[in-house]
Design goal:
Radius of gyration: 26 Å
GO molecular function: carbohydrate derivative binding; glutamine-fructose-6-phosphate transaminase (isomerizing) activity
CATH architecture of the largest domain: 3-Layer(aba) Sandwich
Organism: Petrachloros mirabilis ULC683
Number of domains: 2
Catalytic activity: D-fructose 6-phosphate + L-glutamine = D-glucosamine 6-phosphate + L-glutamate
Strand content: 15-25%
Strand order of the largest sheet: 3-2-4-1-10-9-11-15
Distance between the termini: 10 Å
Helix content: 25-40%
Function: Catalyzes the first step in hexosamine metabolism, converting fructose-6P into glucosamine-6P using glutamine as a nitrogen source.
Bound molecules: fructose -6-phosphate
Number of strands: 25
CATH class of the largest domain: Alpha Beta
Pfam families: GATase_6 (PF13522), SIS (PF01380)
Shape: globular
């Protein structure tokens, strides 16, 4: 939520660099945007309501050369998305500016105190207290004089201010009175520093940095940094110097371009065969045959990681929670481990009672979701006396994110960064991670025979080609079919067993990018209530893959058809009975039911994408959403 950027260096191009950075961060919020720069001893602030292009137009007609500045793209929390609430926010003198990502929980008390000290507030935001708080402390700190452990009064004033803030935040601060300093701080919200040649950057996320540098340094919670044209110094909130070394990001700037696709979402749907291939190559032992001594899967976990394991609990949000539901099916049915899947936002305030020998898995594509991180942090400290320490595992495509600094073990899904706000390739990659984990556990716990394991692994290896086949053979057809639903108001998605979470995911994709009301339901539950919603205006999409519940799903689909619903089936190409049941087909290759979610989700992603595109909506940046949800 919200993206912040900062630049300090020798190029007089701060505005261009900030705007380019904000463009890469727009996926984090797009309610308003703004920049503040310092030139000729003055602070200049330009802000605009709405998407970034509004700000770009304003900056184009009023630009000053500057080598220091900060920028922000907003996802509104406190205060409407209006220009007066846009960041940067300034102190009363308008010489100091702040951008923030997060929420300051004690802003009301601070604002009252600061009003009594004569500060004037101009916005409804929580953030505005920060510039006033810093400005409030500065004169006293300057009067005290520089002490040995205060490299600069501005740094010290920001340090004292952040110590008074409660909540989760990442901030960047500049002042016209300190034209060679950019101060940044982090507490529970992401912030990465970038090291260039005589220039330094900060940003909420790495895509804003990689056009300039791949040498990056993520700040940790409770750290504050001072960036000058000659270097970077990092301190703790207590004022102690922290020694940290930048690392090199193994990324290519092309990864964050559309590469000829109309939208990032479509590009990312098309990346899925490659993502699955890469993930499998990374973790599967290519030569494995039944009878070999080692596991066919090498996830890089400690050798004793699975010892005495009795149950698993998964914490996640949104699409990642759906991946967790598929994970539960696999861990229970394949590896025989009782598993719960929890919304992280619920779990953190009402956790399951502690049970020994539990593995907690956090699933998150961004690696920054506040609720998921908080739930994992809580599990890391919840510990009953005499019991072994908690076992935590993260599943993510962002191994450089905050998640990896919170949990000791990570399965990197190798999906890379995802820009489209609606998750697609990262979901499929999370599923692959769960397949590999469940099969590795099944090998260790001997819940599958080596032959069964071999068959499933061979099935997994076929998936990239099968995904390619779906994309090649289906996209045009789905695009045409989608025309029929441009004015539809409600959709129902049905699935059972391992494909129930895919029904939820299909409904979520449609809701979030097309704004059509959609519900995912376990097909067998329809008759217990939701069937009352059905009539000729409500299409029903049913996922019917041969296996344990195939006939049942077809019967449930017939029940919907008897209520005049138009039936769309996600089903194998050669299933005669299914072909006769459904009015329209979204065919997928014939695969083992257990592996089918990796295929059945793709036509649903395409359907949601094309309906939204036909409706002329902003597919990559749907209203009210943000890619990285760093607030509660
Ligand atoms: C849906 C979507 C969201 C995220 C959710 C969790 O397409 O992207 O529902 O899945 O906000 O995000 P992560 O996975 O970053 O924790």
């Amino acid at each position: 939520m919200c993206g912040i950027v900062g630049y300090i260096g020798t190029q007089p191009a701060a505005s261009e660099i900030l705007l380019a950075g904000l463009q890469k961060l727009e996926y984090r919020g797009y309610d308003s945007a703004g920049i503040a720069t310092i030139s000729e001893g003055e602070l200049h602030c330009i802000r605009a309501k709405g998407k970034l292009h509004n700000l770009q137009e304003k900056v184009a007609s009023w630009n000053r050369p500057a080598s220091l500045g900060i920028g922000h793209t907003r996802w509104a929390t406190h205060g409407k998305p209006e220009e007066y609430n846009a960041h940067p926010h300034r102190d009363t003198s308008e010489r100091l500016a702040v951008v923030q990502n997060g929420i300051i929980e004690n802003y009301r008390e601070l604002r009252e105190q600061l009003r009594h000290h004569g500060h004037t507030f101009r916005s409804d935001t929580d953030t505005e207290v920060i510039p006033h708080l810093i400005a409030d402390g500065l004169p006293r700190i300057q009067a005290e004089g520089l002490q040995a452990h205060h490299p600069s009064p501005l740094l010290e004033a920001v340090r004292q201010a952040v110590c008074q803030l409660q909540g989760a935040f990442a901030i960047a601060v500049i002042s016209a009175d300190f034209p060679d300093e950019l101060i940044v701080a982090r507490q529970q919200a992401p912030l990465v520093l970038g090291f260039g040649q005589g220039e330094f950057f900060c940003a909420s996320d790495t895509p804003a940095l990689i056009p300039y540098t791949r040498a990056i340094l993520p700040l940790d919670n409770g750290e504050i940094a001072r960036l000058t044209p000659t270097g970077v110094e990092v301190f703790s909130f207590e004022g102690n110097r922290v020694r940290k070394t930048p690392r090199t990001l193994n990324w290519n700037p092309v990864m964050v371009e559309k590469q000829g696709f109309k939208h990032f979402m479509l590009k990312e749907i098309y990346e899925q065969p490659g993502v699955v291939r890469t993930c499998l190559e990374q973790y599967l032992n290519g030569d494995w045959q039944p009878g070999m001594a080692d596991s066919p899967i090498h996830l890089g976990l400690p050798t004793d990681f699975y010892n005495n394991l009795e149950q698993v609990q998964i914490v996640a949000c949104g699409t990642s929670w759906h991946a967790g539901l598929v994970g539960k099916y696999l861990l229970e049915q394949v590896a025989g481990l009782p598993t719960t899947v929890n919304y992280a936002s619920e779990f953190r305030y009402a956790p399951t009672p502690l049970r020994p020998n539990t593995l907690t898995i956090g699933v998150t594509q961004s690696g920054e979701t506040a609720d998921t991180l908080a739930a994992l942090e809580m599990e890391g400290t919840r510990h009953s006396e005499g019991a072994p320490p908690p076992r935590l595992l993260g599943i993510t495509n962002r191994p450089e994110s905050s998640l990896s600094r919170l949990v000791p073990q990570i399965i990197d899904t190798h999906a890379g960064i995802e820009i489209g706000v609606a998750a697609t390739k990262t979901f499929v990659a999370q599923l692959v991670a769960f397949y590999l984990l469940a099969l590795d556990l099944a090998y260790t716990r001997q819940t599958l025979t080596p032959e069964q394991l071999h068959t499933l692994i061979e099935g997994l290896r076929q998936l990239p080609a099968e995904l390619e086949l779906i994309l090649e053979s289906q996209e045009r057809y789905v695009e045409t079919l989608a025309h029929d639903f441009v004015d539809t108001q409600d959709f129902i998605f049905l699935g059972r067993g391992i494909n129930f979470p895919i029904a939820l995911e299909g409904a979520l994709k449609l809701k979030e990018i097309s704004y059509i009301h959609a519900e995912g339901y376990p097909a067998g539950e329809m008759k217990h209530g939701p069937i009352a919603l059905l009539d000729a205006k409500v299409p029903v999409v049913a996922i019917a893959m041969p296996g344990t519940v195939f006939e049942k799903v077809l019967s449930n689909a017939q029940e919907a058809k008897a209520r005049d619903a138009l039936l769309i089936g996600v089903t194998p190409m050669d299933e005669q009975e299914a072909a006769e049941t459904f009015d329209a087909l979204l065919p997928v290759p014939h695969v083992d039911e257990l592996l089918s979610p990796l295929l059945t989700v793709v036509p649903l992603q395409l359907l949601a994408y094309h309906i939204a595109a036909h409706r002329g909506l902003d597919v990559d940046q749907p209203r009210n959403l943000a890619k990285s949800v760093t607030v509660e």
